[in-house]
Amino acid sequence: MPEPLDSVLAEVRELLLAPGLTRAVAAGRRRGHVPSVTRAQLRPVTLKQGQRLQIVTDDGARPFTRNVDGADAAQAVDALLAEPFGNWHVETDSATVQVRVTKKGDAQVHRSSAVAAPRNPETHDRAKQWLLDPGDPLFTVVGGTAAKRRQIDAFLRALAATLPDELPTPLRVVDLGCGNAYLTFAAYRYLAGRGVPVQVVGVDVREDQRVRNSAVAAELGCSADVTFVAGTIEAAELPFEPDLVLALHACDTATDQALARAVEWEADWVLAAPCCHHDIAAQLKNRGAPSPYAEVTRHAILRERFADVLTDSLRAALLRLHGYRVDVVEFIDSAHTPRNLMLRARRTGARPTDEQRAEYDSLSGQWGVTPALATMLTR
């Protein structure tokens, strides 16, 4: 139920200036207004001079950081609250408050309890700017190895590069083949931190994963926003049609199932990090290569690597034929995983050209393969 904006902003002000603040983000804009900065982040830090409130604002060109205390902190917070931001996300050691300003100028507020133990304010010096703070409660629950932090950060950077500044509210997300869901939770924590309400559903075929992941959501205090279902990617029933579809390391044709469902839902954004590529590799093994490429598929290791490239090339082409703009990018450095590609797709609704159709037909026809995704999209 909408609440008066002034009273909600007064509540936000109190949280921002209270000792228990963990972090806060202001972003977006209200209807008919443009803030002087695109985004503001606040967090407590400990400097040699003592505890300060760090405020990082971004005008779209570069970030600007300042550390303030006392009356200066109150003045800086008041100035930010006067900006016409469309969303606020505030986390303290006892609560999380998400605020969205409606078109009518009221406030939609979501309040929840915090589950993490209070953290000491962070030091000013940070060697790396992580998109999800290494001190985030998520890492306490799922573990925070260096490799896991790197993978999460690489994933979130790909996600950030895919999504626009203005997001739908609420933003509806599905993670197909979510497994133990640490990337699912990372996406939720990051997106919620951008100040928009987020609804997430994770899908995995294993019931024990659903039970485990639901328990983690409860421990993180986000079970109202992050839910899990047990079922196949093809048959999973969701409470909404998603805006964003994730498929991260789904095996073989499970990636194709996820992409087919994304097209079916007309999802605005898709991020897929394919795992193994057995389907096309098997088709290449069972037929001869076109001249003069026999040497490419004669050796098993070369055939496997070529199948990876051909599979993802055909996937990208098929998504383009169905109204998506696609980039194939490095997901994480190949030193950390041999499966390091990600397909990032944004729906434009553009109709395919005759040249694009001919390119796909020529590529698949020359190698005599029928991608699983092509079959799924014609059902």
From TrEMBL:
Pfam families: Methyltransf_32. The keyword Acetylation does not apply. Keywords: Methyltransferase, Transferase. GO terms for biological process: methylation. GO terms for molecular function: methyltransferase activity. GO terms for cellular component: cytoplasm. Residues 148-283 form the Methyltransferase domain. The keyword S-adenosyl-L-methionine does not apply. This is Methyltransferase family protein.
